[in-house]
Amino acid sequence: MKSKFPENFLWGGAVAANQCEGAYNEDGKGWSVQDVLPHGLRGRRTEAPTEDNLKLKGIDFYHRYKEDIKLFAEMGFKVFRTSIAWSRIFPNGDDELPNEKGLEFYDKLFDECLKYGIQPLVTLSHYEMPLALGEKYNGWLDRRMISLFERYAGTVFRRYKNKVKYWLTFNEINAILKEPFMCGAILTDKEKLSKTQLFNAMHYQLVASASVTKLCHEIIPDAMVGCMILGVTVYPLTPSPDDVIKAMQRDRETYQFAHIHARGEYPKYLLRFFEKNNINADITDEDKQILKNTVDFISFSYYSSICESADNCGKMTGGNLSKGFINPYLKSTDWGWQIDAKGLRYTLTKLYDMYSLPLFIAENGLGAEDVLTEGENGEKTVNDDYRIDYLNAHLVEVEKAIDDGIPVMGYTMWGCIDLVSASTAEMRKRYGCIYVDRDDSGNGTLERYKKKSFDWYKNVIKTNGESLKREL
Ligand code: BGP
């Protein structure tokens, strides 16, 4: 069947600085919130970085990026999504001057991508805020974070204006309401935060996101800026209207963020929610003007869907930041995330019907335990047919959405090279087409090996999706 993917479709892969770079204290980098989260979302943060934190070394991308980008180029990537670690550029977050060494690293990284014709897609903030901002300001509880973020964003926009044309503001910006420390450097325990505090933090990030969108358009007129939403899709557990309403309400918790970025104002239902819950969010008239700086596209992560029920009964799914009831029609990954390829088409359709903006799938992939074996040519490999099946099924649904008329700009599969997982901080959960020899105890040579999915994805890109296996 003739591929429906547009000629200029941005095929590629995604990582985040804190999950792959390592070099946590090199070249003047300050500590980030991740450096004190050795167990991801499972355990408490530590006072200082500890040896059991796999992210401190990551996959040593900081020193091996040339080798890795060469492999991405071999797969034919058109785009590579990564993030800039704010704490490499401003080690304390509020320093007057940026750290030149940090800036140089990303210069080299982006040059390396461009050398192969790979466009960098850069997230400004991917769960890796300078820890000092937590200690000094209590993170995003403080309005001053907006101008500090503008200083950081302005610095990198000016520096990389000739190299980076695609930007994302905050990774999964809706997650601030779930994980205030990881997403907002807020040191106060979530249970002790008032609703007003929590929604203020959300609001400040939204204002910062809109403000740097404007700044980017001024500094790099030919750049495109997107928001990034944790795209969990919610179905009613049963056709009961009560379940349907419950699912609708849960969906709004996600879509309200896309709404503000796309329409430039708060949806009425969220303002009513504030009123009904006595939330006195610090929304000024000036903020409302800033919010009008809308994004050029909406990007989102998509791993699975969940079910909601008014009855609050049933078994819960796994998931890192969003859990729900188990859908009996779906299978799950080893980590309990339900696999729902059709849900991706559904999500693309919903988002486009609501906001009419181009869409970008910034994350999608399968976290699984891989076994390294000897391949036919004697080289080590992983026969990850399960990953190929997952990616194939999702891409076929993306193609259907495109065929329905939805403008999808690109697809960056998550963790194109194995990295440390965000929620569980382990190596065992692998997403990549490239295997990295490192285990949960931190042992391994860090050698890279191509998995079976490497050649498979290479071929998908080469044929612009034509080689995908479609249902008969
Ligand atoms: C998203 C994060 C990523 C990534 C992914 C997979 O929520 O943006 O950073 O890690 O989930 O999650 P995990 O690594 O927990 O398996």
Quick overview:
The chain is an alpha/beta fold.
Unreliable parts: none
Strand order of the largest sheet: 1-2-3-4-5-7-11-14
**Associated small molecules:** 6-O-phosphono-beta-D-galactopyranose
Tally of alpha and pi helices: 14
- Alpha-beta classification: alpha/beta
> What's the number of extended β-strand segments?
16
The largest sheet, given as strand count, sense and whether it forms a barrel, is: 8 strands, parallel, barrel
What is the molecular shape?
A: globular
- Estimate the helix proportion, in percent: 25-40%
Q: Which percent band covers the strand fraction?
A: 5-15%
Q: From N to C, what is the helix and strand string?
A: EHHEHHEHHEHHEEHHHEEEEHEEEHEEEH
Termini separation comes to 10 Å
Oligomer: single chain
Average pLDDT reading = 96
Radius of gyration: 21 Å
SSE map:
Layout: E1 10-14, H1 17-20, H2 61-75, E2 79-83, H3 86-89, H4 100-115, E3 119-125, H5 131-137, H6 144-159, E4 166-170, H7 180-184, H8 195-219, E5 224-230, E6 233-236, H9 241-263, H10 268-276, H11 285-291, E7 297-301, E8 305-308, E9 331-332, E10 338-339, H12 341-355, E11 359-363, E12 373-374, E13 380-381, H13 385-403, E14 408-414, E15 434-436, E16 448-450, H14 452-462
Parallel strand pairs: 1-2, 1-14, 2-3, 3-4, 4-5, 5-7, 6-8, 7-11, 11-14
Antiparallel strand pairs: 9-10, 12-13, 15-16
Helix pairs in contact: 2-4, 6-8, 8-11, 12-13
The structure holds 6-O-phosphono-beta-D-galactopyranose.
The site of 6-O-phosphono-beta-D-galactopyranose has 16 residues, from loops.
